[in-house]
């Protein structure tokens, strides 16, 4: 007898899919997925079988494919199959064969689900798979999320055999005389998961014969701890992550008060690509001078005076050339207009516009971003000043320096730090006969 009621109760309790839902069952032909298919049929669910041939085991893989096709015919359900060149995919993407097979499998399942309008993709993972995953995660290093193992439901991926362990499945297969195929690669200990399955778990079961039950109880504790952490993080995100345009500010004083600081800060910043090593360095730098920069693939963290500034990485805008015949050019997210006037007009009270003595301009001019060697002569001063020092005086965060446009004369002089200050050497004087007015408009 198949445990149909336990099966349907587990599906209902964990809200894996609705009784009338369409389910795409991933079937390899092994005992786990074969049992899942028979249970889906016995319970009366609307399902189909999907099988992947990774073309890694020659005739054996073809035999597995044929077996799954015959199983679908026996159960009178639709059958989908595909052949993958897994080795070629792994080589071209520079990943392992196992990772390639996983990527190809899940991509195809999603494709079939969307094209054929399925509600869920059923996978035949069971309790021992979860134990193996947790042990793998612990070996490689993990946070709390890595301790909850394989969840019964993750989005549209469902695992309706999670209430069974491997011994249960073997017994049910034998009792019900169900045919299945054996993947010879499952016995090889060259793969990390198989090594844990065949060498580590048997030793642990010698210490604790009820290992599966113990892990089941532990999993409940781990999942509840994760839920508690998520609730705390949800509160902290509202309290600490203050958004300003594309940037997020985190108060340094508030971060110092966090406990446990490392755990909470890591989980707050992990979605932005920051790892634990970076978080350790960040915490160690909280009482030091501002200006320290930390980077992930897509984001930058800047330790400012009172806040940590989190912002998307921004590349240096491309340099543009300005000719005397130009009346309008585009730079980054700005538009620059040029007006040539025969009177010595001085623009006042507008930081985004400036009047320049036209006779001093050497074309072509350039609009570009900041470079480390840059200096200029600030309006009202006789001595030059490094732009880096000027930015510090103006309390401009490090990551914003490269985004501020600089108007540069053809002789290399910086005429204007746009939106901030112009050069003493290019101001309109009593001898000025003609001006050029530059205005920056944010688009």
Topology:
Blueprint: H1 4-13, E1 22-26, H2 31-42, E2 46-53, H3 59-75, E3 79-83, H4 86-93, H5 97-116, E4 120-122, H6 127-140, E5 153-154, E6 157-158, H7 166-175, H8 192-207, H9 211-240, E7 242-244, E8 247-251, H10 252-256, H11 261-269, H12 276-284, E9 293-295, E10 299-303, E11 307-312, E12 320-322, E13 328-331, E14 334-341, E15 353-357, E16 365-368, E17 375-376, E18 385-386, H13 387-393, E19 406-408, E20 414-417, E21 421-422, E22 435-442
Parallel strand pairs: 1-2, 1-4, 2-3, 4-6
Antiparallel strand pairs: 5-6, 7-8, 8-11, 9-10, 10-11, 12-16, 13-14, 14-22, 15-22, 16-19, 17-18, 19-20, 20-21
Overall description:
This protein has 443 residues and is α+β, with helices and mostly antiparallel strands. Helix content is 38%, strand content 21%. It has 13 helices and 22 strands. The chain has helices at residues 4-13, 31-42, 59-75, 86-93, 97-116, 127-140, 166-175, 192-207, 211-240, 252-256, 261-269, 276-284, 387-393, and strands at 22-26, 46-53, 79-83, 120-122, 153-154, 157-158, 242-244, 247-251, 293-295, 299-303, 307-312, 320-322, 328-331, 334-341, 353-357, 365-368, 375-376, 385-386, 406-408, 414-417, 421-422, 435-442. The strands form five sheets. It has a six-stranded mixed sheet, with helices on both faces. It has a five-stranded antiparallel sheet with strand order 7-8-11-10-9. It is elongated. The N and C termini lie far apart (70 Å).
